[in-house]
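Okay, any thoughts on this one?
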Amino acid sequence: MAVIFLFFIAGLWMADGVVLLIAPERMIATLRQSLIVAPGFIKWGGVSALLGLVLLFGTRGVPYQPLWITVGLSMVAKGIFLYAGPDRWRLRIVKWCLEREVVDYRIWGLGLCALSVLLLDALGWGKGL
């Protein structure tokens, strides 16, 4: 069952990464608009904590283990912060993240795509082709 969630995480990373590579301005504009319309939307960052736990416990025994531990712990920390962090700090950090240069978003996009490919490789995707 955890493997399905790991493929889901890889798919999310790939989708976000590709959009950040192709149309970072549009993605950030959409995210800004979403936060204006529904400020509570940021609390959904807590889902990141749950997916981080899936990554931590679902990747036992697969290649690149130190990477999954690091990324999983980062996802848990980010998710808890977005869900329960002080509003003043949370809003300041989100504002800072949404005001980056376009190249910064593209670098994050490359990173997300790379994580996705590494996770798919670790799960054995494409073996035997």
The CA atoms of residues 45 and 63 lie 27 Å apart. DSSP finds six helices and no strands in the chain. The helical segments are 2-22, 24-37, 46-58, 65-84, 87-97, 102-122. The two ends are 24 Å apart (CA to CA).
